[in-house]
Write a structure and sequence with these properties.
This protein is an alpha/beta fold. The chain has two domains: about 5-215, P-loop containing nucleotide triphosphate hydrolases (Rossmann fold), CATH 3.40.50.300; about 220-290, Alpha-Beta Plaits (2-Layer Sandwich). Helix content is about 35%, strand content about 30%. Strand 12 and strand 13 (about 250-255) form a beta hairpin.
Length: about 300
């Protein structure tokens, strides 16, 4: 089943704070999509609304045309795994008990795959959840998210407790299972440089507003670094959208956004070096420019 998530002028207010402000969004392409934003930007609020955990203050959010909040027909096709609150240290049940509960609650649950993931992450069904380390609880949470195989699956910083090798195991497992069972997967992460290669589309939220939504491939092509003799670089970047500049002696490096199609050719002809900016660098630069709209 293909999931289509649509937000229409979506807003959410926490008392006097506007956490999400007039966000409109349409996600219909199966893929692993990145939801990026600085702390407090509204990422978790958006995921909470998309999973039916909160009711919008105004606007609308739907899965396959159906309202999500208090609608089992929609929420049964949604799985969200959060950094906290899903496999907490207060659980006194065993991992096996947790898997049995997920089996009863998740209509798309795959028990065989869950057991394979337990082996992959070296967890035993007999272990008590409240005895697990933070990293082990994060592994268990990600197992619950992957084996649920929900048409809309969301991971909200759920693997932050893992060490680097475990995180890369998670990324590999996420990609492998998506390739075998395509669905709509939304991932919020501060480890952008580690996971960006998996992204099909990128959504950037800043100060509660939608700053950018486009394909990862297109976004990678929009950021360029040009490096070389300072005078030549200055002449070439004049009038361009400069994100940052660095100088070391006679050499200068400038990061640019939204350059013209022939820019790299001109840089090469001038004897300058160019390289594409990683998505993480583009994200850092764009969210540092407060109040600047990006089309």
């Amino acid at each position: 089943m293909t999931a289509i998530l649509t937000a229409d002028h979506l807003s959410y207010r926490y008392r006097d704070a506007l956490a999400l402000d007039d966000v409109s969004l349409h996600l219909a392409t199966p893929g692993i999509h990145g939801l990026l934003g600085r702390n407090g930007s509204g990422k978790t609020t958006l995921m909470s609304l998309a999973s039916g955990l909160r009711r919008p203050t105004s606007g609308d959010i739907r899965l396959n045309g159906q309202p999500i909040f208090e609608n089992y027909a929609a929420t049964s096709d949604i799985c969200i795994i959060r950094e906290t609150g899903d496999t907490t240290s207060e659980w006194t049940e065993s991992i096996g008990d947790g898997l049995a509960l997920a089996r009863d609650m998740r209509p798309h649950w795959d028990d065989g795959y869950a057991n394979k993931l337990l082996d992959r992450f070296e967890l035993s069904v007999k272990r008590k959840v409240d005895e697990l380390s933070r990293g082990e609880r994060a592994k268990f949470a990600c197992i619950l998210g992957l084996a649920a195989r929900a048409p809309l699956t969301m991971f909200d910083e759920s693997y932050l407790g893992m060490d680097a090798p475990a995180r890369y195991d998670f990324y590999d497992g996420l990609l492998e299972d998506f390739m075998a069972h395509p669905r709509l997967i939304l991932v919020s992460s501060h480890h952008i440089d580690e996971i960006a290669k998996l992204f099909e589309e990128v959504i950037i939220i800043d100060h509660g507003r939608l700053l950018l939504h486009e394909s990862a491939e297109a976004l990678r092509g929009r950021g360029v670094t040009v490096t070389g003799a300072a005078a030549l670089v200055d002449g070439l970047v004049a009038g361009q959208n400069v994100l940052s500049e660095r100088s070391l002696g006679p050499t200068k490096s400038v990061a640019l956004y939204d350059v013209s199609d022939d820019f790299r050719g001109k840089a090469k002809a001038a004897g300058l070096e160019t390289s594409l900016l990683p998505i993480q660098d583009i994200f850092v630069h764009l969210t540092a420019k407060r109040g600047k709209e990006v089309s």
